[in-house]
Design goal:
CATH topology of the largest domain: Thrombin, subunit H
Distance between the termini: 55 Å
Helix content: 10-25%
Strand order of the largest sheet: 1-2-3-6-5-4
CATH architecture of the largest domain: Beta Barrel
Strand content: 35-45%
Number of strands: 26
Shape: flat
Radius of gyration: 25 Å
Number of helices: 8
Length: about 450
Amino acid sequence: MPYPQVVRVFATTQSPDYDQPWRARSPSSGSGSGVVCGPGRILTGAHVVADATFVQVQRVDVPDKAIAEIKAICHDSDLALLEVVDDSGLLDDVPAAEFDALPERGDKVSVVGFPVGGDQVSITEGVVSRIEAQYYSHSFRKLLAVTVDAAINRGNSGGPVFKDDKVVGIAFQTLSGATNIGEVVPSPLIRQFLEGVERGRPAAVPCDGIRAQDLENPTLRRAVGIEKGVTGVLVAAIAYDSTSYGVLRVGDILHRIGGYDIANNGTIAYLGRFRTVFDAVLGDGWIGDTIDVEITRDGERMELELTLKGAMHLVPRISYGAPPTYFVFGGFVFQPLTREYLATWRDWWDNAPKEFTHLYYNGIATDAQREVVVVSHVLADAINVGYDLYNLSVTTVNGYAPRDMQDFIARVDGAEGLVEIGTSRGGLIVLDRKEVRAAMPRIQARYHIPEDRSADLR
């Protein structure tokens, strides 16, 4: 039997409902692929088992299924480690797959898995066409990926990609608008994930937290004082509490990171072979590690050390596995702006409010604003008659700009008399605190809301 390490993964999932954040959607089921990577352990894609309530695995040559649980999951790099928890012994005689280093461009590979349309294992062959950073659709992180010209169809996701008899990647997505172009999570990210699990490290890919500007323009280079032959990028913004926060400064010129020279277009020669974005090197480390950087600040060249942290976005990209944060006050539903909330609009990148998509793509967390609080709905009641203010961000609470959801609620809970909430586009909500207290029991009963706020806000 070829590729006995390849298994089919069945998952029942139940995702939150961000239109009614106190509820969950109806359960649904789906399947993907995986590969045995150790005794009773299977490596698959995070999106295959995201929000899973029940998971089973099935080997190539046996119709029986074994119950598995998620041991670790890294949504950043779209990887998950499953562990068989029943006593079926289904995988006892299955050898663990061996993992290899990054392939070379032009290498022949085989994508193995269980795509829709059949129950038997499928093998599609192709070649590696490029190795560079790509946007991962599951996490919206731009990370190192291997592109292959082999078909990756629904159900193939999470399955291994073999070069000869060793795994060089995990299939995770197809390239939109192209035919038979698939993306593969590469060996360095797989190693970072699996070794991190063994070492007890957080299952996340570090992020530098900066917004950098290329320095290809000669006039710009002269303006910032960069000499001919010196390369690097300009630090244009730094996210609050990120890897670079408090160490780098806006206006610094970043020349080297982790021993790699940064070109004027923001790329490095990763492993000396692949030209890709400079922060791809962060995928080799773990949260809490340190990395050396070289910068120029005010004309002085210096070496600094960064302690790696996870991604810090003004609008979070990942909330899988956690219930939504929400607060209901006088029938107004408040929640942080997140990618999941944006996804309540079909094709949200085109149809969600432009204010929200602008904040998603261009906003950066600061000490003054660490989250965007939005009015997502108005639940009709006598207390909020005449207000047509929703799908807007909150700008003020009794004259103060809320820093995040916790700060917003603390100011609302601490207010007496009138509560004035300013919204984007000049909207104003005014509610009487005493009247809201009287109205909330009937609003919660009418709309079947068990609590006025999510558990993380109590």
